[in-house]
Amino acid sequence: MKRSGRREPYTEIGIRRLACARCGEPARFQWNACADGNLWRPMCTRCDVAINLLVLRFMRDPDAAKKAAAYKLAKA
């Protein structure tokens, strides 16, 4: 699968034309990471929720699961 990414954030219309960089589903959101050259990567809703949960767990947030569940409902 080709990994897409760009230096500037995608527009709202532009992101919806792309596939998720992780799973290939239609993208709705975007992420970037310093270690990845700050490239903006398209993400689908499922992967966006998963990466948010991963970060909350990494930060040892005691309410990670609750926050991720609320975030998932808000993005549905």
Extended strand count? 2
Question: How far apart are the termini?
Answer: 26 Å
Discrete helix count: 3
Q: What is the typical, i.e. mean, pLDDT? A: 91
The main β sheet shows up as: 2 strands, antiparallel
User: What share of the residues lie within helices?
Assistant: 25-40%
Strand order of the main beta sheet, please?
Answer: 1-2
Structural class: mainly alpha
What can you see in these coordinates?
By secondary structure, this protein is mostly helical. 39% of the residues lie in helices and 8% in strands. A two-stranded antiparallel ribbon has the order 1-2. The model has no long low-confidence stretch (mean pLDDT 91).
Question: Which terms summarize this structure?
Answer:
single chain, 76 residues, 2 strands, mainly alpha
